[in-house]
Design a protein that fits this description.
The chain contains 21 helices and eleven strands. The model has no long low-confidence stretch (mean pLDDT 86). The longest helix is centred in the N-terminal third of the chain and has 49 residues, at 110-158. It is elongated and about 120 Å long. Helix 2 (36-46) runs parallel beside helix 3, helix 10 packs antiparallel against helix 11 and helix 10 runs parallel beside helix 12. The chain has helices at residues 10-19, 36-46, 62-70, 88-97, 110-158, 164-173, 201-216, 245-263, 281-291, 318-333, 339-353, 357-377, 386-393, 398-415, 426-437, 445-452, 456-467, 471-486, 494-500, 506-517, 521-532; strands spanning 2-6, 28-33, 50-54, 78-83, 101-104, 182-192, 222-228, 231-237, 266-271, 275-276, 303-305. With 535 residues, the chain is an alpha/beta fold. Residues 2-120 form the Response regulatory domain. This is Helix-turn-helix domain-containing protein. Keywords: DNA-binding, Phosphoprotein, Transcription, Transcription regulation. It holds the Pfam family Response_reg.
C-alpha cells in the first residue's frame, strides 16, 4: 500500500515518517507534499492508495484537495484527515466530502496511526476484491454473449435453414438487427501465423476481434464472428462509405494490413456480393470461401472480391479425369512407385484449370479409395486414418497438398500391403472396388453380380467366405466410415453427407451411424467442428 503525507509543517511530515516502521507493516511511504497543489502532481505520478492530509494549508487546503480528488474518476485511493483540537467543523466537512477517517495531531500515537491505516487497508482490499469480482462477472457475461453470437452465425452459415420468425427471434435476442438494409460481408481466413505465438486459439480470435472492432466503430451494422478454425466473418452495412466496391475493397485491404502490422498474421480477405437480410449471409459466406480457394495456386494471401476468382468448382475437367484414371490404373497394376510423379502432373493440370482445391482433394481421395480397395483385397488394414485425409482436404497451398499426399503415400506403403500381395480372390477384390467407386449411389446385389459376372447367390457366399462379412454389411461399414470423414466438412449438411454416401433416407442413415459410433450424425458433426476450431 502506497502512502503520501500532505502537510505544510515539515517537522510533522518527518515525525509521521519516524513514528512507525512503515515497510514492516506493509506500507510504502512514497512521498510528502507541503500543500494540496504540490500533492496533486505527486498523486498523478505515484497513484497512492492512501493520502494523509492536513486540513489547513496555504494555496490549496485539505478540503479543496479532498474535493478535487473525489471528483476524479481515476482516483480510487482513501483519504485520512489530520486536524487539531479546535478544527471539528473542518473535520466534519472533510468526512462529508469523502475522507474516510481523521487523526488528531497533538495526541497521535503509533498504535492509533496503525489502527486507522489497518482499517483503511481492509476497506481498500475489500473494494479491490469486489471490483475484481465484478470485472470477472462482466467478462464472463460478455464472453458468453460473444460465444452465443458465434454459435448463431455458425448455425446461420452451416446449419439447417431457420424459419423467418425463428431467425428474427434469435437475432433480436442477441441484439443483431441489420434490418432489410443492404449488407455485405468479409470472409477472413488466417493463412500464415507463428504457431508458437498463437498456440491458444482464443488469444488469436480475441486479438483479431479487437482490431476489426476498432475499424467497425461508428458503423450502423458491425458484427464479427468466428465461424470455424482460423475462419472469421465480418458483417457490415453496404450503405455510406462502403456502398461502392472500391470502398469495400479499401476496408478489406485495411484489415489485412493492420492484422499483418500489429499481429504478424497473413490473412486472406474476400469481399462478398451485396445482399439483403441475414438469411442470405450463408450463400454470401460460402461464395467468399470458394473464391478464396484461388490462394491455393498463388504465392501470397489474397485480398479480393468474391467475383474475381475464376476458380473452377463444377465437375472435373477431362484432363484431370484422365490423370486420375492413370493413377488408379497404376495402383491396380501394382506400380505405385510413380504416384508422386503423377501427383506433380495432376497439380500442374489443376493449376492450369484453376481447379478448386476441394475438387482436387476429392479427386485425390478417389485415388486413395482405390488403394484402400486394393489393400483390402490383399488382406491389409486398408483404411487411411482421417488425419491424413484431413490434411489433404484442408491444405491451403499446392505445396501443402503435395506434402500431405506424400505423407499419405508413406503411410499406405507402410501399413497397407501392395496390391501384388493378394489374399482375396480376384472377384472379391473387384466387388470391393466396385463398392468404393459407387459408394455415393444406390448399389444393388444384382448390379454388383452383373459387374463381376457371377451368380448373385454364389457371389454373396463367396464374399462372406472370403471376408467374413456380408456384402451389405461391408458396404454399410464403408459408407459410415466415409460419412464420418465427410461430416467434418463444415460446408456439408448431415443430409448432404447422407446423399454423398448413397443413403438418401436420413432416418436410416441416422440409425446406421448411431449403431456404429454411438451418437447421431448431427452430434458427431458438432463435436468435430468444435474440435476443428483451433489455429
Amino acid at each position: 500500500m502506497k502512502v503520501i503525507i500532505v502537510d505544510d509543517e515539515k517537522m510533522l511530515r518527518i515525525g509521521l515518517h519516524m513514528m512507525i516502521p512503515w515497510e514492516e507493516h506493509g506500507y510504502e511511504l512514497c512521498g510528502g507534499a507541503e500543500d494540496g497543489l504540490a500533492a496533486l502532481g505527486m498523486i498523478d505520478r505515484l497513484d497512492p492508495d492512501i493520502v494523509i492530509t492536513d486540513l489547513r494549508m496555504p494555496r490549496m487546503d485539505g478540503l479543496e484537495l479532498i474535493q478535487e480528488l473525489q471528483g476524479r474518476p481515476g482516483f480510487r485511493g482513501k483519504i485520512i484527515a489530520l486536524s487539531n483540537y479546535d478544527e471539528y467543523a473542518l473535520v466534519r466537512e472533510a468526512l462529508k466530502l469523502g475522507a474516510l477517517d481523521y487523526l488528531l495531531k497533538v495526541t497521535l500515537k503509533a498504535e492509533e496511526l496503525l489502527a486507522v491505516l489497518g482499517k483503511t487497508r481492509e476497506l481498500i482490499l475489500a473494494e479491490r476484491q469486489e471490483r475484481e469480482a465484478d470485472r470477472i462477472k462482466t467478462e464472463a457475461v460478455m464472453e458468453g454473449y460473444r460465444l452465443s453470437k458465434n454459435r448463431f452465425f455458425q448455425e446461420l452459415i452451416y446449419g439447417e435453414p431457420l424459419s423467418d420468425s425463428e431467425l428474427a427471434r434469435q437475432a433480436n435476442r442477441l441484439k443483431i438487427e441489420p434490418g432489410e438494409r443492404p449488407l455485405f460481408l468479409l470472409y477472413l481466413h488466417v493463412d500464415r501465423y507463428d504457431q508458437n505465438k498463437w498456440s491458444q486459439k482464443q488469444l488469436m480470435s480475441f486479438s483479431i476481434r479487437n482490431i476489426v472492432s476498432e475499424l467497425m466503430t461508428g458503423m450502423p451494422v458491425g458484427e464479427f464472428a468466428e465461424i470455424a478454425g482460423r475462419e472469421y466473418m465480418v458483417l457490415l452495412s453496404g450503405q455510406g462509405r462502403h456502398a461502392s466496391d472500391s470502398g469495400k475493397m479499401q476496408l478489406a485491404k485495411q484489415i489485412a494490413d493492420m492484422l499483418r502490422m500489429y499481429l504478424n498474421l497473413e490473412v486472406n480477405v474476400v469481399v462478398s456480393e451485396p445482399f439483403t437480410g441475414l438469411r442470405h449471409a450463408s450463400g454470401a459466406y460460402r461464395a467468399c470461401k470458394r473464391a478464396a480457394g484461388i490462394r491455393f495456386y498463388l504465392p501470397a494471401p489474397v485480398v479480393m472480391h468474391a467475383g474475381e476468382s475464376g476458380c473452377h468448382d463444377g465437375s472435373l475437367p477431362p484432363p484431370i479425369v484422365r490423370l486420375q484414371d492413370d493413377m488408379i490404373a497404376r495402383i491396380r497394376s501394382g506400380e505405385t512407385g510413380g504416384l508422386a510423379d503423377d501427383m506433380e502432373a495432376l497439380l500442374e493440370a489443376a493449376g492450369e484449370a484453376r481447379l478448386h482445391p476441394s475438387l482436387l482433394a476429392r479427386s485425390t481421395l478417389t485415388v486413395i479409395d482405390c488403394w484402400e480397395a486394393a489393400s483390402a483385397g490383399a488382406g491389409g488394414s486398408g483404411a487411411l486414418p482421417g488425419a491424413y485425409r484431413d490434411s489433404l482436404a484442408q491444405a491451403g497451398t499446392a505445396g501443402e497438398f503435395r506434402a500431405a499426399f506424400a505423407e499419405a503415400l508413406r503411410y499406405l506403403e507402410r501399413h497397407a500391403p501392395p496390391p501384388a500381395a493378394r489374399k482375396y480372390r480376384k472377384e472379391v477384390r473387384e466387388i470391393i472396388e466396385y463398392l468404393l467407386r459407387h459408394i455415393d449411389r444406390k448399389i444393388t446385389l444384382e448390379a454388383v453380380a452383373r459387374h463381376v459376372n457371377l451368380n448373385e447367390s454364389h457371389m454373396s457366399r463367396l464374399f462372406k467366405n472370403e471376408t467374413g462379412q456380408t456384402i451389405v454389411g461391408y458396404l454399410n461399414a464403408l459408407r459410415m466410415e466415409r460419412a464420418r470423414e465427410l461430416l467434418k466438412n463444415p460446408d456439408l449438411s448431415v443430409k448432404a453427407v447422407a446423399e454423398e454416401v448413397g443413403i438418401p433416407d436420413p432416418f436410416y442413415f441416422n440409425r446406421l451411424f448411431r449403431k456404429l459410433y454411438g451418437l447421431s450424425p448431427t452430434d458427431y458433426k458438432k463435436q468435430a467442428l468444435k474440435n476443428q476450431n483451433c489455429p
